[in-house]
Q: What sequence folds into this?
């Protein structure tokens, strides 16, 4: 969906007056260009969108901080949290200097171009600094989730051949002590909390600046930038080999497409507080995009509610990255607060008004409706200070946009947030596509879909429904040291995602499930579990849901409880706290969950519906091996650990 922006584009209006998004003067603003659509037997099978910017022909990510310093040396690009809780701004020139000094330090320690350096830390300024400094030194960065087990970490370090590892804490480094004998390539182990990053920068003093210039000069778009290991829902993680060109194709087109987020200069400068893990490609891609676009970037290492709320209030971002689980929690928490105050009815009416507003605005942008009428505008104005503003304040008070990915977001929730004053750009992508492969087009959103292909991307639906991708951001291949390096991943130029989806008549993509997760019942009915699981997960009393029924006579589900929601439910019903194993057998709670299952079943046919479910006394967690670090279900591990409960639902 190419959108071109003229230099005379008007300043977008304050979102408080247009809460569901920005409208531009068609005579001076962006121009919407429909995607190219190809059909087969009457069905849309392929959608393509030309790039908004030409592919880079030289240079790399390593050049970005230095280009910023040359163009806008005094513009603040990063804000760093200090020990006293305040935010210290860094200009483009200051950030480039810190990148240069650390790159020289890595060089002084003997790291040579092409060496792999692993980073195991929560989201922090040091993470982004290490990324750009490593690139400036010609190195390849290897993210490791800070929650990874010792075995997982050892595997990634062995497979990547990392010569250096940077951990956040001394405890992480100590845990690897017994494994060092199995890591002959690992020569350096540095710890952020011990000040090793600052010490590295000091060591680089004798190295001439020109050494880094030379190392940067030999990098190009095809040079390997990073090895990002997949979370491994179905097996051992694989290293996705992403190049500098992959990242630049991704972020350059995303910046241009999401002009309101990254480039529109209004009364408030664009900014974001990054709290999703930089070990995941989603957060990393946005961090790179912010540095590339000189958007003020902050980092929040803690995901604890109290810490994050305080960080958001202090930083006050204009946009955020989010996953559906987070948006569901914010919504459910707001409703629970209203219910405790005896205002549940008012909240529900406000939510209905917000959804109507979001849907009416969508219809106007789609050209199928006039937009919100006078009555709806009045109702929204009434509820804004009572409900919507409080939700915006929980996210810092200035958030106008939410970039959402990771799993499908319900249409109702997307419409609600649009009506509450925060436009959602939902996207779909993989590690293998360097982040987003599709995204909601700002000028023509369609709620409940993941949008059109990112400019420069093609999406095809195979005969079996699998989504295939092609574009400049699609990976070169997978890392395989036994095969001598990178093994190509695409077939005839198309990368098979393993996801199932469909394209509508206007080219919008909807994700319906994972190819390997499609259930085939004993009666031969194909069942996609994801829609049922995603719908039930939005219920305030449900944390996770696993739908099963492969080669079984009917479909069942394992449900875990959301403890915050359960505590609220007990309090509102005058019930004392009880242990989870007792709650799992509670008849009244079972009846509430049965109504939720009945509602979910309305989306599907009778053979696809959930006939029986079991409430588990424990939640699925990453620690127990039931979730990946990106919150995806490890289906086989869950089925193995809860086999007794599964068999009981089938009379075993």
A:
């Amino acid at each position: 969906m190419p959108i071109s922006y003229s230099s005379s584009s008007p300043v977008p209006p304050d979102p408080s007056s247009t809460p569901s998004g920005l409208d531009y003067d068609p005579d001076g603003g962006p121009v919407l260009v429909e995607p190219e659509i190809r059909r087969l037997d009457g069905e849309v099978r392929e959608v393509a969108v030309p790039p908004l910017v030409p592919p880079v022909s030289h240079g790399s990510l390593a050049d970005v901080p230095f280009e910023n310093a040359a163009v806008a040396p005094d513009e603040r690009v990063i804000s760093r949290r200090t020990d006293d809780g305040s935010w210290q701004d860094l200009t483009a020139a200051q950030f480039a200097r810190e990148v240069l000094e650390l790159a020289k330090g890595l060089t002084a320690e003997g790291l040579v171009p092409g060496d792999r350096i692993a980073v195991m830390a929560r989201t922090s300024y040091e993470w982004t600094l290490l990324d750009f400094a490593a690139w400036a030194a010609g190195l390849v960065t290897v993210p490791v989730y800070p929650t990874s087990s010792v075995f997982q970490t050892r595997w990634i370090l062995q497979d990547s051949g990392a010569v250096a590892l940077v951990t956040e804490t001394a405890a992480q480094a100590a845990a690897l002590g017994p494994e060092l004998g199995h890591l002959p390539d690992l020569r350096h182990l540095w710890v952020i909390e011990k000040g090793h990053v600052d010490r590295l920068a000091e060591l680089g003093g004798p190295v001439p600046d020109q050494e880094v210039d030379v190392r940067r000069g030999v990098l190009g778009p095809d040079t390997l930038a990073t090895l990002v290991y997949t979370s491994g829902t179905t097996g051992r993680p694989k290293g996705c080999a992403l190049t500098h060109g992959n990242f630049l194709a991704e972020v350059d087109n995303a910046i241009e497409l999401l002009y309101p987020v990254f480039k529109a200069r209004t009364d408030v400068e664009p900014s974001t507080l990054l709290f999703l893990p930089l070990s995941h490609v989603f957060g990393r891609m946005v961090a790179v995009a912010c540095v590339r676009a000189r958007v003020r970037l902050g980092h929040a290492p803690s995901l604890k509610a109290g810490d994050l709320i305080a960080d958001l209030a202090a930083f006050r971002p204009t946009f955020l990255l989010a996953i559906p689980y987070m948006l569901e929690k914010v919504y459910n928490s707001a409703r629970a607060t209203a219910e405790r105050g005896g205002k549940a009815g008012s909240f529900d009416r406000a939510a209905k008004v917000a959804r109507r507003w979001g849907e009416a605005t969508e219809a106007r942008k789609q050209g199928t409706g006039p937009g919100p009428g006078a009555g709806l505008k009045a109702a929204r104005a009434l509820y804004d200070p009572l409900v919507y503003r409080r939700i915006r304040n929980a996210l810092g008070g200035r958030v106008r946009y939410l970039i959402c990915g990771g799993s499908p977001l319900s249409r109702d929730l997307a419409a609600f947030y649009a009506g509450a004053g925060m436009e959602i750009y939902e996207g779909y992508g993989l590690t293998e596509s360097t982040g987003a492969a599709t995204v909601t087009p700002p000028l023509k959103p369609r709620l409940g879909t993941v949008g059109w292909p990112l400019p420069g991307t093609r999406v095809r639906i195979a005969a079996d429904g699998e989504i295939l991708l092609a574009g400049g951001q699609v990976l070169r291949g997978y890392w395989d040291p036994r095969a001598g390096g990178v093994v190509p991943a695409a077939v005839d130029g198309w990368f098979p995602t393993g996801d199932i989806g469909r394209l509508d008549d206007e080219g919008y993509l909807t994700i319906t499930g994972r190819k390997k997760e499609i259930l085939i019942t004993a009666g031969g009915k194909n069942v996609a579990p994801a829609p049922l699981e995603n719908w039930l997960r939005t219920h305030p009393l449900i944390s996770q849901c696993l739908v099963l029924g492969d080669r079984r006579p009917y479909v069942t589900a394992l449900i875990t409880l959301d403890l915050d929601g359960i505590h609220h439910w007990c309090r509102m019903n005058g019930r004392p706290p009880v242990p989870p194993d007792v709650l799992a057998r509670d008849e009244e709670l079972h009846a509430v969950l049965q109504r939720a299952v009945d509602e979910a079943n309305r989306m599907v046919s009778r053979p696809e519906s959930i006939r029986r479910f079991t409430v588990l006394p424990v939640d699925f967690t990453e620690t127990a091996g039931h979730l990946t670090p990106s919150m995806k279900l490890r289906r086989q591990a869950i089925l193995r650990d809860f086999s007794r409960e599964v068999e009981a639902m089938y009379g075993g």
About this structure: Residues 1-29 have pLDDT under 50 and may be disordered.
